[in-house]
Amino acid sequence: MASTQKQKLFMMKKIIILGTTGSGKSTFAKKLSLQLGIPNIQLDLLFWKENWTYCDDPEFFSKIENATQGDTWIVDGNYSRTRHLTWPKADTIIWIDLPFWKTIYQNVSRSVKRAISQEELWPNTGNKESFSRMFSKESIILWLLKTYKKNRKRYLKAMELEEFSHINFIRLRSRKEIDSFLKGLSNE
After folding, report:
1. pLDDT band at 157 (very low <50, low <70, confident <90, very high)
2. Which pLDDT value is given to residue 78?
3. Rounded distance, CA 75 to CA 42, Å?
4. % of the chain at pLDDT higher than 70
5. Domain boundaries, the chain
6. What is the DSSP string of the chain?
7. 167: which residues sit within 8 A by CB, 6+ positions away?
8. Higher pLDDT residue, 188 or 167?
9. Mean pLDDT, to the nearest integer, of 116-133?
């Protein structure tokens, strides 16, 4: 890793983790949070309420504003309508950009595991994955199929925009790159 890259990594304080659903962004954000000692803000946790209801934009935006008041944070999530709240404050965006086949495999595996285990997805919501939900219009797998290509185009375009030139973009395209990145932080 070049010294300028190491310097940029050392200065990461306000980080956004992006990636299509099933890419592993939440798992990565948790690991990064532990490694750097920076609070992790999971947007899904702020968005979802009981019985699969969700916050309207004013409430959601208020929760995000409150959560990102500190000097350091990691925001994990793909809510493009919240970009105006987090991107101007961020110094780093890490994009987990795994191949489609890997992402779909992880998404399906995770969904099946959750449907079997009936683990609650976000505390105090009662929201659980189910097989009927997996094959409905609200399916997270269907969401992946609809958004994978769109997200890639959107992120590639955003990386080139002048308004985000203050952001250090890091694109991780494989499990090997992800592991290497996290290991590199440990060696600093």
Report:
1. very high
2. 86
3. 6
4. 94
5. 3-186
6. --HHHHHHHHT--EEEEE--TTSSHHHHHHHHHHHHT--EEEHHHHHB-GGG-B--HHHHHHHHHHHT-SS-EEEE---GGGHHHHTTT-SEEEEE---HHHHHHHHHHHHHHHHHHT-BSSTTS--B--HHHHTSTT-HHHHHHHHHHHHHHHHHHHHH-GGGTTSEEEEE-SHHHHHHHHHHHHT-
7. 87, 90, 91, 92, 93
8. 167
9. 92
Under CATH, which number does the domain 3-186 receive?
3.40.50.300
Q: In what order do the strands lie in the sheet with 73-76?
A: 40-42, 73-76, 14-18, 92-96, 168-172
Closest CA to 47 of 79, 24, 69: 79
Rounded Cα distance between 59 and 57, Å, is: 5
Q: What integer pLDDT is reported at residue 10 of this predicted model? A: 54
Q: Which of 99, 105, 119 is nearest to 19 (CA)?
A: 99
Confidence class of residue 188 from pLDDT cuts 50, 70 and 90?
Answer: low
The length of the chain, given as a count of residues = 188
The encoded tokens of residue 111 equal 């969904």
Q: Kindly tell me if the per-residue pLDDT of 3 is higher than 70.
A: no
